[in-house]
Amino acid sequence: MTPRPRKSLAQYWLKREDILQKIVNAAELKATDSVLEIGPGTGNLTRYLLPQVAGLLAVELDEKLVDFLQKKYGHHPHFWLLKSDILTLDLRAELAKNSLFPPPNKVVANIPYHITSPLLAYLVGSPARPWSWPFERVVLLVQKEVAQRLTAKPGGKTFGALSVRMQYIAHCTWVCDVPASAFYPRPQVDSAVICLTPRMPDPVVLIPRRFEQWVQQGFSQRRKMLRNNLPVAQEILAPILTQLGYPETVRAEAISAPDWVRLCNSLSDYSSDSLSEQLPNEPQVNHPEVETEG
């Protein structure tokens, strides 16, 4: 018997075959690929992935689903199932225990929405804490609002701190819309499939933690001009904005991700004495959940 979805674990089974196929197509799978699937549930996506790859590592937290998946796919030579919380899983350590399994080079998953923010950090890192695992492609089914922010262009209402941070370390593209009716049970929000392709940053941030801090401060009050959000003297900020082609009255959302890097790098060129009275020390940046970020 197929296990029923558990609301406490934010389980929603994707039932639309056409969308499942679009997810797989977005992964651009090759026979030599190895895939990490997070939260496989009852295996609706697993059955599309498994025949096409050299290895499929499925990580599932729900014990009942682990038993169900093991019975369903455990016989397959390319299938490896781990009962674990993905956010606490030491992927390198687990792979060291199974040296014959090909290390995953791609991620394909329908993820629980309440772990979106930490999961993005786990899979692709952040400017201040880059994740060195060589994932070539990350295809995720996420809340539509999050997808809009990840793929947003400068100047729009959805372009924010999350957009800048993620676009610094990955190309973010929209794959397809996923209506609430595509799931069982039906969630209260619509969703979308996105594809993240990690990349080498260009330009490179000089002080990553300070960059994250400034970006977060820049978007802290969206209706205000940037000069009123960043604790930097106008005589320092204005010439940098002019050099980048922006007016002194610019708001944070009008500045592209690469120009945010250039802006912060230029601010970093000033001596610590010049900014010491205006900038706080560099505490660990605590990112807000992406679902509520302004």
Question: What would you note in describing this structure?
Answer:
The strands form 2 sheets. The chain has a 7-stranded mixed beta sheet, with helices on both faces. 34% of the residues lie in helices and 17% in strands. The model is unreliable at 273-294 (pLDDT under 50). It folds into 2 domains: 7-198, Vaccinia Virus protein VP39 (Rossmann fold, 3-Layer(aba) Sandwich), CATH 3.40.50.150; 208-275, rRNA adenine dimethylase, C-terminal domain (Helicase, Ruva Protein, domain 3), CATH 1.10.8.100. The protein has 294 residues and is of the alpha/beta class. The chain is elongated, with a radius of gyration of 21 Å.
Strand order of the largest sheet: 4-3-2-5-6-9-7
The overall pLDDT average reads: 90
CATH topology of the largest domain: Rossmann fold
* Main pleated sheet: 7 strands, mixed
Radius of gyration: 21 Å
How far the N terminus sits from the C terminus, by CA atoms, comes to: 43 Å
Extended strand count: 9
Structural class: alpha/beta
Number of domains: 2
Please report the first level of CATH classification, the CATH class of the largest domain: Alpha Beta
Any low-confidence stretches, pLDDT <50, length ≥5? 273-294
Please give the share of residues in helix. 25-40%
Beta-strand content estimate: 15-25%
CATH superfamily of the largest domain: Vaccinia Virus protein VP39
Binding site for S-adenosyl-L-methionine: 14, 39, 60, 85, 110
EC number: 2.1.1.182
InterPro entries: KsgA/Erm, rRNA_Ade_diMease-like_C, rRNA_Ade_Mease_Trfase_CS, rRNA_Ade_methylase_Trfase_N, rRNA_adenine_dimethylase, SAM-dependent_MTases_sf
Catalytic activity: adenosine(1518)/adenosine(1519) in 16S rRNA + 4 S-adenosyl-L-methionine = N(6)-dimethyladenosine(1518)/N(6)-dimethyladenosine(1519) in 16S rRNA + 4 S-adenosyl-L-homocysteine + 4 H(+)
